[in-house]
Amino acid sequence: MSSDQHIKKAFELSAKFLAHKSYNSLTHAVLHYFCSLEGVSEAVSYEIFGDPNSETGLSIRRFPMTLDESYSDRNRDLMLKALPKSKGGVTCFKFKGDDYILLDITKDVLPRRIILIRGKVSSSDLILVEGVYGIYANQVSLLDSKERDNLTGLPNRQTMEFTLNDVVTFHRNNKLNPIKPSWMVVLDIDHFKKINDTFGHLYGDEVLLHFADLLKKSFRHTDFLFRYGGEEFVAIVNNANPEEAQQILERFHQAVQDYDFPSGKVTVSIGYTQVDPVTPPLLLFEHADRALYHAKHNGRNMIVNFEDMDSQVRVHEDDIELF
Ligand SMILES: Nc1nc2c(ncn2[C@@H]2O[C@H](COP(=O)(O)OP(=O)(O)OP(=O)(O)O)[C@@H](O)[C@H]2O)c(=O)[nH]1
Asked: Signal peptide span per the entry (predicted)?
């Protein structure tokens, strides 16, 4: 490619990527572009939570993924080797005889974002990859301020609404080839106000951070996590039958009870419902929230499935005041 062609191509690419108004669509477009380069066999993006020097403290969540995916990520070993060495930016390296390019955004974004490209590209394409990295890193940090919660780095309520719509649409379109269901889960820390009142707001924030970290470690990389607001979080658990969904939630519920938070022991109330493709997404949230309300009203520190609630309770509990 001549240098004029190169500049033209770079301008075209930046215009194309700057037009994307959400992290999801931008990342899809960037991965699609990398996959179109000669010599590339795969491009995947990850969110990295925790300490890259500690295998147990590290959580790697792949994005994007399809909802019917169930295998754990095959690049985990590679990431464990490459991450501690990366100082950010674009790095080419070999692993078990294969060529890779690691694009590592460490600046101004939380969680750290990685794109892993498998393959070897020409030197002129590598210059374009580096250019796209620069645009992507800047755009991600801009889009994050709109789509993520500052404190925990989790996607926020607005992003949850978009994602839930996508999940429902996915199940609606897959009626002929159904996979295991998804579950809408609302999780709320019990007596959080007391933590703030006793230890102060900063301690409260610290508890929220630890709680969010536990969520990231306990749920699978195929599930979606959000901070809905305050001390309320949402998980969309994918590809799980009713028994598995219950087990996943019990495991998290127990993990919270076992954990030593900065303020001492903490408990969580959980309400959940199955994602039924014919129920409007907002109503799904409301059902999970009613189940949560039921848990709060019946002593807290418990898990309630909306489908198991008595139909009378489902309708009438709204009027009860919680203290
Ligand atoms: N530290 C901190 N506190 C917050 C944040 N967002 C909301 N809160 C506080 O969270 C508390 C929530 O209190 P409530 O809604 O009464 O809930 P609760 O005390 O957990 O009681 P139950 O949910 O009924 O168990 C309020 O005091 C809010 O001010 C935040 O980002 N940081």
From this structure: none
